[in-house]
Write the structure tokens for this entry.
Amino acid sequence: MVTIKELPKEEYLLKGHAACAGCGSSIALRLLFKALGNKIILIVPACCTTVIQGPYPYTSSAVPLLNILFESTAAAASGIVAALRQRKMEDITVVGWAGDGGTVDIGVQALSGAAERETNFIYICYDNEAYGNTGMQRSGATPYGAWTTTTPSGKKERKKDMPLIMAAHRIPYVATACPSYPIDLINKIRKAKEIKGTKYIHILAPCPTGWRYDNSKTVELGRLAVQTGLWALYEIEYGKFKLNPPSDRLIDKAKRKPIREYFALQGRFRSLTDEDIERIQRWVDEDWEQYSKLASDCVSGALLHGKI
Amino acid sequence: MAQTIIDTANHIAGYAAKAARVKVVAAYPITPQTTIVEKIAEFVDKGEMESEYIRVESEHSAMVACIAAAATGVRTFTATSAHGLALMHEALHWASGSRLPIVMAVVNRAMGAPWSIWPDFSDSLSQRDTGWIQFYCADNQEVFDTIIQAYKLCEDERVFLPAMICLEGFILSHTYMPVKIPDQKGIDEFLPSYKAGWVLDVNSPFSHANLVSPEWYMEFRYMIQEAMENAKRLIPQIDKEYGKRFGFEYGGLVEKYKCEDADLILLTMGTMGSDAKIAVNNLRKNGVKVGSARVRVYRPFPVEEIRKLAAQAKMLTTIDRHISFGMEGFLATDVKASIACEKEHPLVAGFIAGLGGRDVSAGTIEKIAKKSLKWMQIGRVEKETEWVDLRE
Amino acid sequence: MKSVPKTRKEMPPTALSYPTVGSMGKTGSWRTFRPEIDYSKCTRCTICWVYCPDAAITRQEDDSPKIDYDYCKGCGICANECPVKAITMRREEE
């Protein structure tokens, strides 16, 4: 269990990059580099990070980075992994780093294909719950009721549950994370590196520009998302589901903070009615009933490997 | 040991990928390409090919996987047809913009709607602006030889562009012909190990293809055009070198047949070139001075070769196996454009034939030639674009 | 650090961009508020360092944080997260 002070001082996300002030995904990217160092190849589809690098001839990434077409992160990973194997350089870690749009919408086919082919790489989705790069249009990962430029009166559909979709592919490791819990995030990335096969990590990345909150609250909001139960921290390792702290203590509904606290801080939820909030609370409770069952399932893996 | 085998162009393409010591193949099946990927799967499975075969879930992913593998420092190969090629369209742009020497076999098949599985050039010709070098083959031997030549061309530092080797579906892809496969040692000497303009490297990190402002973008595009011009020069040289080593060459950019004294020259692409030779021979029996020129390389377009032909002939007739709707056949337009600025140039007539696999025999080409000769006599092309063998 | 190409001949065949601090220039100019650390209150917990999205805070030998004002965008996360409220956001003077 590493501590903050034991983390390496080297920075591979260089200061002076183009991210908005208070960008949650940039914290996560910095932490990715703290977890893995620079013996990696990063694949970045069209997303916020494309622009965050800054313009040619400069880049803010100090690791080899392949920018690639929007829907193809995981296909590129399959290609790179195959080439590294032929060149006998498999000690280089291949990491796909994609936004939620490029993962749950346009990128889902390639990701599903790579997972089915058991491509040996880490796929990380940093989720700012909309198409951030193009100005905050809705994605399949946008939650119910959220304002986006294409859902001005609030999204009418629920957020796609991508981690469970990936778990249904029977890949060896699925995890959720949040940069507000940096040690948890780093541990998960480091654990993923040591596992052979397709690894999927879904990171909630609060976005001040798109979620309409004060830039200084990014880490606080991520923490609230977890504390209200709207975002659960868990791992599914070889099919075995485990909640991570502090989510492991939130199976008891009474311990979960009221979701209103989370919504109140964000302009994008301004149009939520009391009825909406009741509905969302019901869904959260239902999700947690499922997490509780998964966590206590004695038949390890049976629920997620094959039964669904 | 060199060996002669009798096999389909698809299988031969597989043999060529093997001979080129390709390290990563990423491909998705589509009629009439499927037997290429099946052959390669067989080679890899048996250990006859030291390569990774990524059975991707779409053609778009196939091209991206090749781009990523090439960017990681290995020789790559893929194959597709028609809608598969169309599906990878944005990736074709990405590959050429990335200056990666990927080689792809395109088994030509007509585009839908409606569905057709039979050959024409609507698939590859509609990708002509993507910055890919395009070769069009007339027989199975040429398919093998051109794939090997293409790797040598594309991996030349003056080029660093991807290339597609086009072969007509069913006419070549599924037809057995004898092919001489040179001995591997000779091929290894002709085609040394993979070279690329850049490789992802943990010891010297960079971002590839991040945002390029108007201040720089145009120069990158100019460099691609420069590379195409270089390819135009290098293709005949490589063809000659290959011919010297292995005994097969194809005239570089344009394969000319009895053009030296021809009044009328028939310009074709692909297998029509072979039928055109038969038509030429038949017409010459009756004293007609006809020649045929098969455009082997469509991009870069052999502008200088066309001008030379125009300078010596009274009429050029193009036979296109595709139409650019709202205009005319691609070959017709490019031929006209090549000679438009010359003070004097011959008549040019354009014919559309063979769409959706409709047969174009030597007899059809003779008919085309006879009509062209009529126009040549009256000094006027009566119909700028004529569709051949169309149902009334 | 590779040098920036000046002529077309110096350009690579495709866009290869090299790691550069300040790829967007001195992003400190984006700031409206600047964080100021009261080192007498600071406990060297390094939480501000871990959370800075811009890597604009470096950890000194004694773990005390040093802010690079050339690149700090003034988001205020460090001030918000500091457990002892040792960081204050002060409006930039013109």
